[in-house]
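Trying the structure run again after the queue cleared.
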Amino acid sequence: MHNTWGIVLAGGNGNRLQQFTRRLYGDERPKQYCAFTGTRSMLGHTIDRAERVIPRNNILTIIDRSHLRYSQIELRERPAETVIVQPVNRDTGPGILHPLLHICRKNRDALVAIFPSDHFILGEERFAEIMSAALSLAGSSLQTPILLGAAPDRWDTSYGWIDKGVRTEDHKGMSMYQIGRFWEKPGPDLAQALYLRGCLWNTLVIIGSAMTLVQMFRQWTPQLFNQFEEIRISFGSPRATETVKEVYSRLHPVNFSTSILEPVADRFQVLPLSGVYWADWGSEQQIISDCRRFGLALRKEEPAACHLHEGREFTPRQTEALKIKYNKFTEGLAYEKNQENR
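Done. Tokens:
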């Protein structure tokens, strides 16, 4: 298990859901810090999910610096060295490569599982079984990372789509396939055709050799990789935090799916999710639909005129003043100190 690592992607801004989350919480928190139903946030569920198959101290969570007021509460029980702070979100490419380099520095033979933090999953025990199987399969096939694919219940243009190729292996009743082709968010006509063809949705849950994934970045996103070489070389030095800031200030967004999955889909395999309900909670419609479908109580919206803080009511202007005060208080606290000490 010491060779097994996890990456939780929690740096996104959740722009498509901002109006919805503002109505629910009265602030600008990204969706991963929201508990849309129940008491645990989506990020909390994701970390719990990862801990079922990966040692707690081997799970790295990458967050955005602008979200510190939420993450410092949400991640207060996590070991400080397992939290990586991005100065700014630059999409899933940097969000994956940054923690991968940290993992390879600690263990070049590591297997890694990547978990986006905006997934709704029913059937957690079965999901853990599938993840365990994927880690076992990835360990015997280091050059071909594995994607988990979800069976769609409709055509949808907001998902990536996976065309299953030849079946490559069976493991404990689960079949794995070579990926024939990958499409990231196709148009309506193509999405309908892919749905009718029996293609799968991309969950972006990835399992594979950390070094193999790093080499894919080197080959297919050389500019990004070379920029991150500056960060890698600075690990453990007094300039590590400043180097990260400088590099990120020059970075352009790089999407992992369009930059790597689409051009080299045949370098990946897909393991279909079976016995699990999976959804990407990226839209208000999807969240409300799933809550109704499974009888889950959706969080009630905050009153529009005021917000609550420690049992007291504040007007929007007072609430904004509290936010500014809290932002100043959190400057330079644990996460950034931790980055300087690495």
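The chain has 13 helices and 13 strands. Worth checking whether this holds up in the mutant runs.
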